[in-house]
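tool_call: predict_structure(chain=1)
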Amino acid sequence: MKIVQAMGKRKSAIAKVTLKQGKGRVRVNNILLDCYEPKLSRLKLKEPLLIAGNAVEKIDINVNVVGGGLSSQAEASRLGIAKALVEFTKSEKLKEQFLSYDRNLLVADVRRKETHKSNRHGKARAKRQKSYR
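tool_result:
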């Protein structure tokens, strides 16, 4: 039995994806994809599956995702699923399809939150205003 593991990261969310031969079930944190909420996250997770097409019908996908918010978890899971599918099928055509649809399906987004600077007010780049009156 062939088992493939991949990982996806987005901000502070980390998704571990396991693919193995099976009946086409997709689970995210032990919840079936059709029952996963919110709907926008469910649609994001379905994107790599729809692009892959018939290749997904005989593969069970299990995703464990921790950290971050709902949107970041969905993005991390989506990245992990796409990476694992390319590795499982070893198809250059599928890789090209993912890259042409959205580059973030295979390449991680490395942007992070900018750290807060000491002795300043408010946000990370906010500086104290000066008035010469």
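agent: The domain at 3-105 is CATH 3.30.230.10 (Ribosomal Protein S5; domain 2). Proceeding to next step.
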